[in-house]
Amino acid sequence: MYRPPSSASPQLIRRLRCLAIPWLLALAAPGCHEGTPISTESLCAEGGCPFRSDGGDDSAPPTADATSDRAEDTAPDGGGTPVDAHAAPTDAPAEASAPDASPDAPLDAAADAGADGPAPDTAPDRAKDPVPDRPAIEALPPDPTFVVAPAGEPFPLLRASLAIVVFQRASDGQLWRFEQQGAGGDFAAPVPLGIETRGHPTAVVGADGLVRLFAAAADGTAGMWKEDAGGAWADAWPGSLPRVVIRDGVIPLVLPNSQLSLFAVDADRKLVRFHQAGADAEWTVDRALGVPPQEELGGDPAVVAVPRGSDSIEAVFVRTANGGVYVNAQTTPGSPQAHWVPWVNGYTGRVSAVWLALGGGAIQPAFIGIYQQNSLYLESRDPVSVENVIASGPPGDPFAVRLAGDRLAVFYRGAIGDAQLVLQTAADPRAPFAAPVSLAGSLVDGPAPVVTSDGLVSLFGEGMDGKVYWKRQLGATSWANWKTLP
């Protein structure tokens, strides 16, 4: 069932009230405020605005109208609002059960999780390095309706050398790098990059084998830093990357022919696409994607490059502040358009984007997200509808990787902070997922996975002590203990 879009968003109505009421109070009782201007900030401080219809609790998660059945069609023109995704939560299975996966495949459900290893010596002090001055830009105020990634969440990346590099933002905003000493080796002591950011980092390996690092820079704009052959980092600002103030992260998407697209949400909660047509080519800014009509974005997008012959199309998923999920997929490679198609309601947190191979050469985009705060779902449409329960119980944000044979492995943080693994039992996108397996640990964010050259997975997460923890797969069903990086 469609929910007709309202003519004005609740956020807009609250803002108008908060702007108008202080002036009315001043006119009605000027003596009460003589010499003291009325501050809308004091009236509308977080949790204390008397004019909010919700009583001021902006921290509550968005809710969705549950329905007993699912409407499969969307508006022909892509307009409207997403339909409710699934039956009411009480109809969801108590746990995601499935036939046991093949015993000879990596990440099978019988994996030996291992226990937390002993803590090594204290990590070196991460002193704040000087950062070149930039023109000041006023920071965006915190917005409880916009979900941001945990600032300390590690970002792992497989280098061209097949060694892993991990980036993490420290509490003072400084970026640090953990470098693996050869494929499968241990990690060296962390190295400060002398880069201060306002958000979590992301990174890609360029066609030249060097890493490009992205984050919201210290001045709040989208930042890019390029590694040189000697391992030093060159600040690309104010070079080719256009200066746009963003709310949280920069989400990169590697495309064929050395092309690269970046996605971010700007100060007005509109989606911005940066595109580089070739290696180190000039960046262009595309604001055509905008935002779904009558909606506000509830977090950073999830993006995936969907193969189309020798090329790829870009598929972008966004979750709105109201819990709806929309998709915008190119019909022609390299040609974005403002055509948002509503899919489903009832989602919270961050979503993860993947592509599904349906047989006969058909490939379509899909996303994984938290539905009604108590289950993980895999969703896809057009031409084939896929609606697959991954796991039940209150999950953390999902991280998905594709294994050899086109099976999906999904990792998330469990209710007690442990890493959970859910493995698809077959390559068919409609195949069920095995029951979740705990991989132990005590994490506050992550577990962020990376697939190494041997087809095995390494996980990284931030522990409750603020350190980065690492757990690697040893074989089809065995894992090493968690250990802290130096």
In short:
By secondary structure, the chain is mainly beta. 5% of the residues lie in helices and 35% in strands. The chain starts with 9 loop residues before the first helix and ends with a strand.
Overall description:
With 486 residues, this protein is mainly beta. The protein has two domains: 10-89, no CATH class; 90-122 and 148-484, 6 Propeller (Neuraminidase). The protein is 5% helix and 35% strand. The chain contains two helices and 29 strands. It has helices spanning 10-28, 40-43; strands spanning 83-84, 155-158, 164-169, 174-179, 191-196, 202-205, 211-216, 222-227, 233-235, 251-255, 259-265, 271-276, 283-290, 302-308, 311-319, 325-329, 341-345, 347-359, 362-371, 375-380, 386-392, 399-402, 408-413, 419-423, 437-438, 443-451, 457-463, 468-472, 483-484. A five-stranded mixed sheet has the order 1-17-16-15-14, with no helix packed on it. A four-stranded antiparallel sheet has the order 2-3-4-5, with no helix packed on it. Strands 6-7-8-9 form a four-stranded antiparallel sheet, with no helix packed on it. The longest helix is centred in the first third of the chain and has 19 residues, at 10-28. The termini are far apart.
